[in-house]
Amino acid sequence: MSGYVLLVEDNDDIREMMALALQLAGARVMCAANGREALAVLKGRPVPNLILLDLMMPVMNGWELSAALQRDETLAKVPIIVISAMGEAGAAGLHPAEFMSKPVDIDHLIDVVAEHCGTPGGPPGVA
């Protein structure tokens, strides 16, 4: 995959499993454990092709991060895929490109990321 993904998930096990699966599929993945960390990861780096966003996180949750991203002209254009156990209704105000329920279907996740980041086969990234 030619682009890169920002994965924002507070659960270490889920974040590591999703990042590894995406990397094995050829995606370049940057990770953050909460919204504040995600904003720090974005500074000084190229704009991601896609953001995978959990909603319920400590420090800065998914709704707060989404609001912060909307205040940045460039980041506001990045598609967000909400991945949450709380149901699609909780993400309605965010207008995500897609919603995925936890536990996430890894094959579907890889397909969605490939749609936004190009076809598989690019160099794997780092988490």
Q: How would you explain this protein's 3D organization?
A:
- The protein is α/β, with parallel strands linked by helices and 127 residues long.
- The chain has a single domain, classed as 3-Layer(aba) Sandwich (Rossmann fold).
- The protein contains 4 helices and 5 strands.
- The chain has a 5-stranded parallel β-sheet with strand order 2-1-3-4-5, sandwiched between helices.
- Strand 1, helix 1 and strand 2 form a beta-alpha-beta unit.
Give a brief description.
By secondary structure, the chain is an alpha/beta fold. Helix content is about 35%, strand content about 20%. The protein is built from 4 helices and 5 strands; from the N terminus they run E-H-E-H-E-H-E-E-H.
Mean pLDDT: 87
CATH superfamily: Response regulator
Radius of gyration: 13 Å
What is the number of beta strands? Answer: 5
The CATH top-level class label = Alpha Beta
CATH topology grouping: Rossmann fold
Order of helices and strands: EHEHEHEEH
Question: N- to C-terminal separation?
Answer: 15 Å
Q: DSSP strand (E) fraction?
A: 15-25%
What's the CATH architecture? 3-Layer(aba) Sandwich
Strand order of the largest sheet: 2-1-3-4-5
How much helix, percentage-wise, in residues?
A: 25-40%
Structure classification: alpha/beta
- This entry's quaternary arrangement is single chain
Query: Which term fits the overall shape?
Result: globular
How many distinct domains? 1
